[in-house]
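Quick one - inputs below.
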Amino acid sequence: MRRETNLYTSIDWITVALYAVLVLMGLVNIYAAVYNEDHKSLFDFTQRYGKQFIWILASVFIIIMLLLFDSRVYSVFAWLIYGTMIFILAAVLVAGTEINASRAWFQIGTFRIQPTEFAKFATCLALAKYMSSYNFRIYRFRNLFIIAVIILAPVGLIFLQNDTGSALVFFALVLMLYREGLSGTFLIYGVVIIVLFILSMILNPVTVAIVLASLTVLFYWSVEQNLKESLFMILVYLLTFSSYFTAVRYGHFKLSQQFSVILIMGSTSVILLVWAMIKRLKTVYVIVFYLAVSVTFTSSIDYIFNNILEKHQQDRINELLGLKFDPLGTGYNVNQSKIAIGSGGFFGKGFLQGTQTKYDFVPEQSTDFIYCTVGEEWGFAGSAVVILLFLALLLRLVFLAERQRSAFNRIYGYGVISILFFHVAINVGMTIGILPVIGIPLPFFSYGGSSLWGFTILLFIFLRLDASRREVL
Amino acid sequence: MQHQYSERKYIISGIAVLVSILYLSRLFYLQIIDDSYKLSSENNSQRQVTQYPARGVLTDRRGKILVYNEAAYDLMVIPRQLKLFDTLDMCRVLEITPEFVRKTLKDARAYSRYKPSLFLKQLSPETYAVLQEKLYKFPGFFVQTRTLRKYPRKIAAHVLGYIGEVDEAKTMDDAYYKSGDYIGISGIEKSYEENLRGTKGVSIFLVDVHNRIKGSYKNGKYDTLPIPGLNIETSIDARIQELGEKLMQNKTGSIVAIEPATGEILALVSSPAYDPNLLVGRVRASNYQRLSEDSLKPLFNRALMAKYPPGSTFKLINGMIGLQEGIITPQTKFSCNMGYHSGGITVACHKHPSPLDYLGSIQNSCNAYYCNVFRDILDDRSFGSVSNSFSNWRRHVASFGFGSKLGSDLLNELPGFIPDVPYYDKYFGKNRWKSLTVISLAIGQGELGITPIQLANMTATIANRGFYYIPHIIRKIENRDSIDHKYRIKHYTTIDKQYFDLVVEGMEMVVKAGTARVAYMDSIKICGKTGTAENPHGEAHSIFVAFAPKDNPKIALAVFVENAGFGATWAAPIARLMIEKYLRDTITNPELEQRILDGDLNSRVNKVVAKKRK
Ligand SMILES: [Zn+2]
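Output:
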């Protein structure tokens, strides 16, 4: 049974209005960020605001196109769209143009397009299609595996483009998976992984090992509530650690930190496993497994950090963790960004009155650091409005997603929510100095045709799906 | 079914709300509570001024200053802060045209309206003093101080090198350098850049609408002080460096003098030289252009890079190899009939008593003697083949540092060339060459290519009776205990000390009663050897190597004068004057000095250059 719907009455105008306000605020701030007295006209197309204005007009056209399609198109062609995007992502590696050390762009004349921005909605469509299929069960290993493949294929290709920030965005989809029934522990593991990552950057490996060991005991005690067995575990740890320290102190030999950790954790695990076999304690197996995974993880971080991450990424992480203080080096942008935002006060300096934002990071001022201009010229009032608008958009999207009858629509909706949330949180967090500098744009705000169109498509496919939600039973 | 998870929407919404609250509180703190980010009035703005450290000063070995710094003032402009000003007044003060002002301001605007651009480079202190009074009339302009290199003695341009603006590529791969910074481009300025440059600092000021500095930003919390560069004491002796450059005026060539006991370079002259002040400041680009177009190539550092055949000075090496290999003894005699004649080949010689023993052969520089020695070395049956004995010969030669870079701290050193077996095999064919084919090596001609510093190093090696230290140009870096360890290692040759003692006797005879009597002095025992490098393009190059005094030598040097004929005519007297100046701080034979100073050999060099061009 299908009921025809009137597009005009069934589209969610609240979301459309939020979108329009954000896009126009973005344009105003781009104008302020690159303001040039010699080119005052907003329609001067040699300037970024003139160009952004064209991108916005084009977006309106894209929106109309998206809404005119039958809503079933997105479900029917989901795989085709996804496959095409993967192909384009691979093609850009071969035939793309390299800009700022990222081979992520296609250039046609003076016009550049970044396929990464369009891979986001394509991946959401593919996931929605796959996860809404009849036999899908999220806790089945096979199904989880395919989800991982769908997500990791674009991630891998974008990573190869040297665009780490955009690659990270896809991991935000864990939030959508959580909504669809993925165990909450995955979400917690995500947080734990980040904490471990930071710990292993700051502390030396043996100290991290001690922290990990204490965590396993706590975990065991909280699950099993067995004091005797927990004490036994502590005893095992104390024995191995103290014999290690004694050996190093009096043995006149030196072990590498990594090797020490493997030695300690290896011998501890063997003792615990033997004990678990004798006593038939299932939880211990699990704990030893997690311990092994954590140790591998933390010790591989050092390797990844020193061998895989680029110099500027290392610097940014170091800066964030306070390992290096360098106001004119890596931390310089963040420091300037904080000064710009901080100098805004409550009501800001006023439109075009900002001085800090125009100083020193001109290339990113209208893109990744656009939020600084908001902070400086519109003050706390303006910055808070932007955050609240984004929050309103996200909450509205949650509401819309929950009212869908089809799993496809809902899953896609949560995909949109995850990606928008990640972008906003990371971008704003970076400019106010509580997250590392990861170069991803602020949705709808940042200068750039590809990102504006990418987010527009992402959002309006969902609005189109929502408009027809009553057509499916 | 999956609706069972619908309560999770609260958790997801909750996360979004929590993050928003966290960010809003952070913003509240940054923008409202923390005053440190506020500026005192809305028109105030920050200005970052790079504080350039003073670059290290270079002195000679006796503490005489070779390079120091002089303050220079760059006029900067921030287009956004410009207000109407009296252009003509500014043009009067700065001696510039209104067109220049217009064009420069246009370029500055094109670059950035908010960042400072260079308006006018290097104002003189006088201009700066006048401008300082009037600067308040020119909002948007400010003066940035930096220092310029100044060379009080106008000597040693090739050694000291020069500094210039860093290139784009360097700013990309070394974060320390920003566009517009200065960096050592050649000589000591380049090789000791990291010691000399110091560390830049930065001051952040608040300025008001009238472009007046209101104070430092956040009490200098983000300021860093510049750390001055380290001073370096070079091994140059300014007295003989200056004398050498003077003696070489109107001549082309090179002088390298080394202290044998340390390997320190006492003088390094490449002629024609130029005044190092030419490559400083606003005039650098035009002067550089002019110097690089000069047909005599003044920018080319002949001391390190020019390859010459060593001529008869190389007989010292061949003789010692003969002794070391047991081919000859000091008593071995060869006769000379105005040259060496064999297999249709003649190597001519001049008139002298015959036959000669080893010492006599050095004293008279007999070509026939060394042709015999060299052929006997290569035809030595115990090596099985000419190729093998040639390789052995080359091994001895290389142990003096020939044929490869010595590894001094002067960059741009070239290796020179000593032919090897594959070279001749390729040239003549395998086993198609024999000792007679390469006979010109016997008297230091043929394919041999030796740089002046290598020949000076050989002389120092003989002065030391068998070893050398890698020649180097610095003695001490401020606050450092010692210079690079590699300059403290003795490099021994493959020749035994006893043969060095013999060759030294021969070299003493050369100056006392041989080919270089012109260099003789009663008061200093000089040991030397003349050389004449044949030059297919024109007159031969005059070469002389010498060290003094004979016992416990203090100076060893090599002198090359291009197209000057016999070694004794020009190179030997120059060496004698250098030695006397260094050891006695005086010149007892002013007529000789005058003759050298008056000598203009560049007309001959120019003829050669012109001929080569055709
Ligand atoms: Zn002779």
